[in-house]
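Notes to self, Uracil phosphoribosyltransferase:
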Amino acid sequence: MIFDVSKTKSIANTFIAELRDENIQKDSMRFRKNMERLGEFFAYEISKSLEYTVQETVTPLGVSSCEVLTQQPVLATILRAGLPLQQGLLNIFDKAECCFISAYRKVKKSGDFVIQMDYISTPDLEGKVLIMADPMLATGQSMVMCCKELINRYKIAELHIVAAIASTEGVAHVRANLPKAKLWLGAIDEEMTSKSYIVPGLGDAGDLAYGEKV
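result:
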């Protein structure tokens, strides 16, 4: 299942347009806020697919039957670029526990790269719904590696993957390796550079949010 925001008429497309805009990107706070807003939008859409339980709620004037989430999902992200997107999800799923993964591209002298995963901090994921957020789904290699590591450790009930921008290659790689995952994407771009950056994409999300790496 793939949900593509760009195929819908939604205010979320305004957030995506501003995330891509090279002039608006100069305002790091605005960039982070738009990524956070997009996370909130995805949380609302994902919430429609989750399980609910009827709960009796006492008001000052009586009792009301309300449907509430049966179980909060766990919100995971890949440091550091994914933090604003995860925060948006957390604003909506405000009782959720969080998982953090340190993974990055380790570039070889040839220019090729491998995905290096150094660190995972996670709550118990047994039987839980997991939402993995990363702003860019380029090759899909880091996403697949991180999700598979968690799947190997725990019996996860349901996997949702959230990204602001994805490439067609990245989507294909995720679908081939994580066929049960549900994808929630802001837009899907056709091209990638020789260094595996999405075109037109939006650039380096981590640098735009928090400053350039050295």
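- Residues 28-47 form the longest helix (20 residues).
- Residues 2-210 form a domain with the Rossmann fold fold (CATH 3.40.50.2020).
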